[in-house]
Amino acid sequence: MKFFVDTADVGEIRELADTGLLDGVTTNPSLVAKTGRDFFEVVAEICQVVEGPVSAEVAATEFDAMLAEGRKLAGIADNIAVKVPLTRAGLKTCKALTGDGVKVNVTLCFSANQAILAAKAGATFISPFIGRLDDIAMDGMQLIEDICDIYVNYPSFTTEVLVASIRSPKDILEAARIGADVATIPPNVLWSLFNHPLTDNGLAAFLADWEKTGQSIL
Ligand code: G3P
To answer: CA 84, CA 89: separation in Å to the nearest integer?
Structure first.
């Protein structure tokens, strides 16, 4: 399973990239707005920190403008994945951009039928938002299972299932059980995966015993 981080905060991305476990980054207009920084500057910086795909979202809603924005974003770096919404114009843009050889992340997916459309449009990634479905008492993880089951029926579908709107470590575990390709994870949730009280307690005990030996490894 690939781990992307869902943030536009370059400091946080740098820290996570240092772990060697980061495969990519997703941003969205809300995350960029949170930084208070220039969009192009932030995205270009992220693309230098991380080798894997960096999703940057278009703001236009009509096809011509969306395509022009997508092409401009794709020009920032080779690892850009242009993010387009799952609308008619978004999928038309997806088809045109993938035709240009540009990676496309189709976002705001809330149904398996939408995911089928995205795959047919040649999307590199489909981003179903599980947390936002759970928020309205629907089953986000069931959507991931449905999309993965459907995609496996059609070998010509090469779209990767990118689980988005993740809220907790449990979401990652369940998505991994299902076999989703990618999880895009908020930084705090990603860091929390490292933690277990038994690891901390066990390490403290080992270190205390090691000290008693009076030896050193180096
Ligand atoms: O970046 C897309 C998605 O992960 C947003 O998540 O928490 O705003 O629903 P959230």
So the answer is: 9
Q: How far is the CA of 205 from the centre of ligand 1 (A)?
A: 40
* φ, ψ (nearest 5 deg) of residue 24: 175, 180
The CATH homologous superfamily of the domain defined by 2-193: Aldolase class I (3.20.20.70)
**Does residue 83 have an active-site annotation?**
yes
Q: Taking the model in full, what pTM does it have?
A: 0.96
Q: Which of 57, 59, 61, 131 is nearest to 90 (CA)?
A: 61
| Cα of 107 from ligand 1 centre, angstroms | 10
Q: What is the pLDDT of residues 46-78, one digit of tens each?
A: 999 999 999 999 999 999 999 999 999 999 999
| Dihedral angle of Cα 148, 150, 153, 158, to the nearest 10 degrees | -60
Catalytic residue (one of 2, 72, 83, 212): 83
Domain borders along the chain are: 2-193
Closest-lying ligand 1 atom to the alpha carbon of residue 127 = 2
Between strands 103-109 and 54-57, the pairing is: unpaired
